[in-house]
Amino acid sequence: MLARPALPSFDYVRANNPDEVVRLLQEHGAAAKLLMGGTDLFVRMRDGVIRPQIVVDVKHLPGMRAIEYDEGAGLTVGAAVTMNQLARHPQVQTHYPLLAEAANSVASYQVRNRATLGGNLCNASPAADTAPAVLVLEGRLVLHNPQGEREVAARDFFTGPGQTAMRENEFLKAVRLPPPPEGSAGKYLKLGRNKVGDLSIVGVAVFAFPDGTKPSGYVFRIGLASVAPVPLRAWEAEEVLATHSPGEETFALAAEKAMEAATPIDDVRASAAYRKVMVRALTRRGLERVWEALE
Ligand SMILES: Cc1cc2nc3c(=O)[nH]c(=O)nc-3n(C[C@H](O)[C@H](O)[C@H](O)COP(=O)(O)OP(=O)(O)OC[C@H]3O[C@@H](n4cnc5c(N)ncnc54)[C@H](O)[C@@H]3O)c2cc1C
């Protein structure tokens, strides 16, 4: 037993190219862990939850810290882009304000200087603050593997607490978001025990835009964090919003459906019962705010 928390010893490798990462993952299997900001990895190592023999630093690989925007292709965010970089990037602020808002809600300024978008998603905590935004913006995760690259939709990426669709010999290179639909608006509402610096008790992202093909004239998307084993979309609530005229009654019904989609647990941050009613409250508030912005 250590007198004070400390990291166990490990070998550190700074990877220079993607194939080297794949080779190291193949060679070392579960004994290797990938490192970006380390704000999740090192905490788990310090607490003795995991004890990798080798830590492979992937944040210096080409493109991992780049943000590229193209009107036709949308946004590509390198996996190792930090939360502060993301929140302050002019084109992210202009075209994807919801993502900037979610990134800016993570932890504290100091942690956001290290914490990366990719690390937040790969850690796959149900409480990951950027996950609801990436879900409702219909992001795709670009994975590098021995065959080259493949993309996985964010909605298929999270498979359980700390579990993802990534295979053992794959790593995340980037996150791609399609161009924002014309006239869209979004909002991320986070409830924590403190105003800043804490994991969420409930996180709700709402994103909407006009769409003449829907009976309501709009598409609304809702992403939830901290209220189920994985971050998730509230599909039934979205269906209500596609088929009923936007307004107080519809928002109340959709918020009820979002609450039904939540299957939270009791933990140190809140009870399951409290989380459920907060999903309803925050969803309703998010819908009202987004509706105001759309109008
Ligand atoms: C004090 C504190 C407060 C926090 N508050 C919040 C909060 O409010 N909201 C929130 O969402 N999170 C919070 N976190 C968690 C953490 O900061 C975020 O999840 C962060 O975004 C993780 O990014 P990272 O770059 O530090 O990841 P790392 O710790 O480097 O990696 C995270 C996981 O992903 C794996 N990994 C790393 N890179 C890759 C890759 N390229 N491909 C595949 N797997 C990879 C690692 O092996 C590890 O399992 C907090 C953490 C701390 C310490």
- Distinct bound molecules: flavin-adenine dinucleotide
**What is the end-to-end distance?**
60 Å
Beta-strand content bin: 25-35%
Could you say what the CATH topology of the largest domain is called? Answer: Uridine Diphospho-n-acetylenolpyruvylglucosamine Reductase, domain 3
Total tally of structural domains: 3
* Oligomerization state: single chain
Order of helices and strands: EHEHEEEHHHHHHEEHEEEEEEEHHH
Query: What's the alpha carbon Rg, rounded to whole Å?
Result: 19 Å
So, CATH architecture of the largest domain? 2-Layer Sandwich
In short:
The chain is an alpha+beta fold and 295 residues long.
Kindly describe this structure.
It is a single chain. The protein is of the alpha+beta class. It has three domains: 11-57, Uridine Diphospho-n-acetylenolpyruvylglucosamine Reductase, domain 2; 67-177, Uridine Diphospho-n-acetylenolpyruvylglucosamine Reductase, domain 3 (2-Layer Sandwich); 185-294, 2-Layer Sandwich (Enolase-like, domain 1). 36% of the residues lie in helices and 25% in strands. The chain has twelve helices and 14 strands. It has helices at 18-28, 41-46, 83-88, 90-95, 97-104, 109-112, 117-123, 130-136, 154-157, 235-243, 248-261, 272-294, and strands spanning 11-14, 32-35, 54-57, 67-70, 74-78, 140-145, 148-153, 158-160, 163-164, 171-177, 185-192, 200-210, 218-225, 232-233. The strands form four sheets. A five-stranded antiparallel sheet has the order 4-5-10-6-7. Strands 11-12-13-14 form a four-stranded antiparallel sheet, sandwiched between helices. It has a three-stranded parallel sheet with strand order 1-3-2, covered by helices on one side. Helix 2 links the parallel strand 2 (32-35) and strand 3. It is globular and about 60 Å long. The relative contact order is 0.11.
